[in-house]
Amino acid sequence: MGNDVIIEKATEPRKWLTRKEAAGYLRLGESTLAKLFVSGDGPPAIKVGRAVRYSSADLNQWMNGRRRKSTSDVSEA
Questions:
Q1: H/E stretch holding 51
Q2: Largest CA distance in the chain
Q3: What predicted TM-score, i.e. pTM, was given to this entire model?
Q4: What gap in Å lies between CA 21 and CA 17, rounded to an integer?
């Protein structure tokens, strides 16, 4: 019973992007996205071995969370 696996149900399957694809999607440099991942300031990612994958839904949510009304808006992302 302690080894039960919970499977997340989704209405549509997630698309998993490589770091290069995710950087292109966000229009950021790959190195910028890598630095954001290391610092913990970037979008959520899954790491399997050396491979890092990003969900397109997570990328959209992360970008929407960074929305500001002005350059002086310092609300937490």
A1: strand 51-55
A2: 52
A3: 0.74
A4: 6
**What is the phi-psi region of residue 56: left when phi exceeds 0, alpha when psi lies from -120 to 50, beta otherwise?**
alpha
User: For residue 15, what is the DSSP state?
Assistant: P
d(CA 49, CA 67): 32
Residue-wise pLDDT for 24-74, tens only, equals 999 999 999 999 999 999 999 999 999 999 999 999 999 999 988 888 877
The DSSP H or E segment spanning 52 is: strand 51-55
d(CA 39, CA 17): 20
Distance (Å, rounded) from C-alpha 39 to C-alpha 35? 6
- How far apart CA 42 and CA 33 sit, in angstroms, is 7
